[in-house]
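Treating backbone geometry as a discrete language has practical consequences that deserve illustration. Part of our work consisted of pairing the sequence of a single chain with a tokenised description of its backbone. We regard such an encoding as a compact summary of how the chain folds. The amino acid sequence and the backbone structure tokens for this protein are reproduced below.
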Amino acid sequence: MRALIFLCFLASAYGFFEVPDGIQRKFDKHKVFMTCFGDEAMGEYWKLMDATIDKCSKEFAQKKAEEFQNQAQTTEITESEQVQGVNDKGQNYINKLTAKAEIMGCLFRELNYTDENNQPIPETLLTMVENTNLSSSFKADFRELVQLCDDLAAFLPFERAKHPLVQRFGRATTFMYCIEKKEIMACMRQEFIKYAHWQGLDGNDEKIFELIMMYGDGKEETQYF
């Protein structure tokens, strides 16, 4: 009986301490970047991101407050319209989505990732990486992935999108999302190059690719480790 109670306790404890998949993925992504770029560099980058997001959020809130004040002065809103506005969940969702998109667009412009027309500026990211102490092979990989992501974002016809937010920010968000995903792979490749060196596989791109594919398939044990 005691053994059964103990097993039940372990099962409940495991469920309690289990990390949600979304949090786990974010943690893994951050660990990859910290390993690739260094704790200090990533810490400074996150501070810059937080400060910029805070600045953009305040500017957006101020802009919406001014718009609301101007609308209140020029338009008479009836009581029924007010009730309808409060209860319109669909409109509230659109407002939240618009706010996120506007703040994101402001963030990209402030960091010079995009221009005033919300078009990507690949040179900003290239310069950032070129000025680091990262390996020449990573810099070469990064140049290739930036070109790939820029071509992808330019190829998709966002100007034909029905929603104005997609028209405005579609190319920028696609470019940055692509960069993040490909950057993770580039960082992982650098780590596997180190592992390959320890295994005496320097310059053997085929074996390095096998390492990456085995890791991506979730296989914890391979013939190389």
Remarks:
- The chain has two domains: 43-72+82-111, 115-225.
- Residues 39-74 form the longest helix (36 residues).
